[in-house]
Amino acid sequence: MRKIIIYLFLIILSVFLIPILFTMQFNISNINVANANDVNAEQSPIVEQASPEIQEYNYKEYGTIKLFHEKTGEVEELEIDKYLYGVVSAEMPAYFGLEALKAQAIVARTYTIYKIINNQGKHEGADICDNSACCQAWITKEDRLARWEEDVREDYWNRIVTAVDSTAGKIITYEGKPINAFFHSNSGGATEVPLNVWGGSGYPYLQVVQTVGEDAYSQYNSEVELTKAEVIEKIKAVHSEIEIDFSQENAIQILERTESGRIRTVKFGNVNLSGVEARTIFGLRSANFTVEILEEKIKFAVIGYGHGVGMSQTGADALAKQGSNCEDIIKHFYVGVEIIDI
Question: What are the distances in angstroms from CA 304 to CA 10, 90, 137?
Fold first, then answer.
């Protein structure tokens, strides 16, 4: 009888304990899952904040370039896009619109490859140099960062890297070949054809195009004042036969302008100068200028900055602010071109 009572007690106890044990196990499982979710929740903001990685472009050719440093005479081999970080950051303000920076990156990459293909042997042992008067400007990352204010350095550099990396491999072509992608600071509202700057037959993709909004930039207007003696001295250094009487009404005459508004021919006394030559002689920002004879000085009022051929950098930024993307900008300044992956 006693054994029967014990058996009954154990059966009753089991009926009560088993559900409790199952419930405890379920609760422990839920606790473990909740802790895992807590860890993921802590990590997820970091994942969301990380910048999306841009897949590295596989250059089958032209993946590296040899850069000649003019000051040191040394040649440095660089990956092309790392080289372009230095070009874009040297050539265009980092605070310009991202689409303008991307356009500059594509233009600079195209210009680089055009130089490699067409100027072989110009720089012995190198593809291109870091002199903007010869090829295109370039600056090291360290020097570039040092010239920016500390509070904008990281943001500015990231913008440059994004502009280059997001356009990796893209170049501008005309009839299947990389173009000679000239660019300049400010066109004064209209670009120029190469024929009026350097002579020759020109390039069909470099035409006169109008751009609205360039007058909002400091590069649009400039003035140069020289004494009459300085004007004569500067001309005489190139044209020893110069004779000019500033008291005469026609002492200085603008004889002809190009389609873009730049001076084709200007007369100083008995000497005719091209607009490009006058720009060089008098140190003007562009060949689009007017001349005013003052009491003691000659005043040059200048529109635009640079030779005016190809893409205007301030024009690119103005278009970016108007909603154009980098391809729109490029096709605005270079007529009949295509943008391809090299």
Answer: 101, 20, 20
- Cβ neighbors of 2 (< 8 A, separation 6 or more) are none
The residues facing 126 across adjacent strands are 123
Can you name the residues that pair with 186 across neighbouring β-strands?
305
Nearest alpha carbon to residue 96 among 335, 341, 311, 340: 311
Q: For the CA atoms of 160, 164, 165, 167, what is the dihedral angle to 10 degrees?
A: 140
What CA–CA distance (Å, rounded) separates 304 from 188? 4
CB 103 within 8 A of CB 329: yes
pLDDT along the chain (342 residues), means of 10: 48 45 35 29 29 71 93 95 98 98 98 90 89 95 97 97 97 97 97 94 93 97 98 98 95 98 98 98 98 96 98 98 98 98 91
Q: Which residues of 166-187 are buried (b: 16+ CB within 10 A; e: fewer)?
A: ebbbbbbbbeeebbbbbbbbbb
Q: Is-contact 273 265, C-beta < 8 A?
A: yes
* Distance in angstroms (rounded) separating the CA atoms of residues 93 and 291: 31
